[in-house]
Amino acid sequence: MPRYNQPWEFDPDHRESLFPLSNPCNPSYDLVPPYVNPMFFALLASTVVFTVIAVVQRVRREKT
Description:
Blueprint: E1 24-26, E2 29-30, H1 36-63
Antiparallel strand pairs: 1-2
């Protein structure tokens, strides 16, 4: 039975996810472009690395 006056049924196999980023429109098409996931994880990793570098430099600067 359709919900919210929509003409289609909800398919629980096609859910959005955060890891990896995904928002399927149907079984053969994802609304998240394929280049987004590698870019997202590269930016996430670089954020972690740069945060660690900043903390290490701050600690070294406070010791002197």
